[in-house]
Amino acid sequence: MATLIAYFSRTDENYVGGSIRELKVGNTARVAEMIQKLTGADMFWMEMAKPYARTYNECINEAQKDQKADARPELTSYPESIDGYETIYLGYPNYWGTMPMAVFTFLEHFDFSGKTIRPFCTHEGSGLGSSVQDIRKTCPDANVESGLAVHGSRIDASKGDVEDWIKSVQSK
Ligand SMILES: Cc1cc2nc3c(=O)[nH]c(=O)nc-3n(C[C@H](O)[C@H](O)[C@H](O)COP(=O)(O)O)c2cc1C
User: Fold this and answer.
1) Does 127 contact ligand 1 (Cβ within 6 A)?
2) In this predicted model, what pLDDT tens digit does every residue of 112-155 receive, in sequence order?
3) Is the distance from the beta carbon of residue 152 to the nearest atom of ligand 1 less than 6 Å?
4) What does the CA dihedral 7, 5, 32, 162 come to, rounded to 10 degrees?
5) Is 100 close to ligand 1, i.e. is its CB under 6 Å away?
6) Domain boundaries defined on the chain
7) Which tens digit of pLDDT belongs to each residue from 24-72?
8) What is the second-level CATH architecture of the domain 2-167?
9) Angle CA(48)–CA(50)–CA(55) in degrees, nearest 5?
10) First to last CA, the chain
């Protein structure tokens, strides 16, 4: 059975190691690419129909508003089906202690019963936060594994951690 890497990631301004920087490729996208090289899995990027603002400060306000409203922002597209996938690597940045609300939109779009979800998250200090519990609540019949947290400002040094994680989950 095939494997899918489904991830949310944002380019534009972001907060990296204490300062605001313009990212050409988002941190989570970079981890997704590492996982793709190691697994050969299919990739899907969750693109918001109305993306958050380019500027960091506006983006955090918009994202926090969506979280407080328990919103389900629309995505521009979805994989046609996830029936053929047994394992899904699910990637996202930590937004206010959990996943961006668009990832909830994605999870609620499909039936993940019986599938294995391997979460991976990039963050600036909060690790996975409550995201793994939130995925378990949203997909109660999936096998949701414990997940990998990668510090966004240390992406370049994280290749070995990603490789070790893939080896350990694949040997289960
Ligand atoms: C709206 C927003 C909220 C965030 N909230 C948190 C947070 O609560 N804890 C944390 O450690 N990092 C937080 N961050 C930092 C991101 O998780 C981090 O920069 C991540 O690597 C961004 O991934 P991306 O480049 O793939 O979008 C936040 C960033 C944004 C834009």
Assistant:
1) no
2) 999 999 999 999 999 999 999 999 999 999 999 999 999 998 99
3) yes
4) 120
5) no
6) 2-167
7) 899 999 999 999 999 999 999 999 999 999 999 999 999 999 999 999 9
8) 3-Layer(aba) Sandwich (3.40)
9) 95
10) 16
Ligand 1 pocket member 94 (CB < 6 A): yes
Q: How far apart are CA 10 and CA 99, in angstroms?
A: 13
Residues 6+ apart with CB under 8 A from 90: 6, 7, 103, 107, 117, 118, 119, 120, 135
* Both tokens assigned to 60: 């955090």
Mutate to test the pocket of ligand 1, among 10, 24, 46, 96 (most ligand atoms within 8 A of CB): 96
3-state secondary structure of 28: helix
**Would you mind telling me the total number of residues written for the chain in this entry?**
172
Q: Two tokens at 152?
A: 């966004």
Residue nearest to atom 3 of ligand 1 (CA): 95
Tokens of 77: 């597209």
Contact 134, 99 (CB under 8 A): yes
